[in-house]
Specification:
about 160 residues; alpha+beta; homotetramer; elongated; about 40% strand; six-stranded antiparallel beta sheet
């Protein structure tokens, strides 16, 4: 994203972290959100048995889940505090087995817009400290203006 | 898929069900595979707290996971017993909140090929016995010839 | 699309045909729009030298162009007369060479919405009267309310 | 693409340029291929009436055509001389009207593989010397080993 983009909400990181904390699915797979910057986020995921397929790699659906969320939250960092975001669609290429000690999904905003935001995400497998690309995603996010995402309220209908 | 398509392996349903049973991720989210026919499958998913986002809808990543798997297993029904399959890529449109008592992902083969298989999946939310479309997916599957998927062996690197 | 969908504009076919007629690109490749029904359209394309690649097949970019337009115009049939449509994104699988006497792209609305419409298109090559699938597309269309598409005016910014 | 990638064919640029020259569709829309480097290419397209829609912007199908070709030819630069490439599928986001004096499509290889290559392309509109992003594409390319692309022969079935 262009570095000159206006920051719509100075408290974007807090807002994004609170939303992430409310996602029971993220807890279920043991994902964390250690990086939230303007226009980009990182989701980390340790390797553990419950999210694997039988051969010891992380399931492709889990790879897609963290890619979708990392990019969706990157979009959420650039919208006003009075808006929420939801995933319209995404396209994911799985380019190598998700093998490693942990996965890192890096989402970033490519094209911010008032109604639609285009993002991408890359997912890396980290093995012995070395990262290798395992998935690439391109995504369309919709901005729901005037629909604040609050605890216990239905705000954005899908991403949250 | 054309109804005239040759059945490469008469025991395809057994092979697919065994593979599904080995996916710990499917157990984690409580998904089942009640329908395995030549060229199509169905994955069912009850609504429960752990896979929801904070507003009570099923997480979009879970929707993608069952769509990807339903279509991937549909592809697996049409390949020889000596082959396995893996997801090259998929594109998912989330068209409505995944709200309901359960979700049904229906995958089917649109275009079988020796090396690549094109599939689609639709995910429906079932509420009070009524189905409504919540996601639509288009997917490319690669056939790995000579790589049987066996318990405890790395056969296909991603799907399994 | 559900058969019960309300017709927003009884003159949709006229509106769509006028828009198509203004696309110089459609003239350049010699495409026609013989079918415009509520929620679906067909674009036909004769085989001729200028749109081929060197081996005598129709260029993949042309296949994508008629798929995108057929589905986009299918979406246009379901919006009010006071709205226009534009393509947000599409995903195209090219499943077989576009070989034949002519191509037929069939677009249809899968999920109409107030702001976003999800469509699909199939492109068939017709050879000796027999159709074979050569491409499959899934697309997201945005509805621009209050932006009538008129001759000589910039209405919708991309599709038209 | 990693800078360390092995160059499979030192004459890749010649091979790519010859293929491009045989595409009658590229001539029809007046596209040129001024940049062919290992792992990346550029296709340029002047603005002219025949490829526009009625409002003076370049047609979205044309944008997709040059994105698809730029990325496909980027893939062709990294395969052996004895192989050809074809587009399996691509996903294109149209993020802004294709307005400007000319368009530049930049394709690059993200993940080379023996059988499948993942690429991306960005399309920029150039206006008064200033580039602005108008489209973003993610693509899967298949490598056809032992199928040299030669003049007058059917080598790769789609891209060429």
């Amino acid at each position: 994203m262009k570095g000159t983009t206006h920051i719509s909400d100075p408290h974007f990181a807090e807002r994004v972290r609170e939303s992430f904390a409310r996602q029971s699915m993220m807890h279920l797979i043991q994902a964390t959100l250690p990086v939230v910057e303007h226009g980009r986020t990182e989701i980390h995921l340790p390797r553990w048995h419950g999210i694997e397929q039988q051969h010891g790699f992380v399931h492709g659906g889990v790879v897609g889940t963290i890619a979708d969320s990392a990019a969706g939250y990157a979009a959420m960092t650039v919208v006003p505090a009075s808006a929420s975001v939801l995933t319209v669609e995404y396209k994911l290429n799985l380019v190598a087995p998700a093998d490693g000690d942990k996965l890192i999904a890096r989402g970033r905003v490519v094209r911010p817009g008032r109604t639609l935001i285009v993002t991408t995400a890359e997912v890396f497998a980290v093995k012995d400290g070395k990262e290798s690309l395992c998935a690439l995603m391109q995504q369309t996010i919709m901005v729901m203006h005037g629909k604040v995402e609050k605890q216990g309220q239905v705000a954005s209908s899908r991403r949250n």
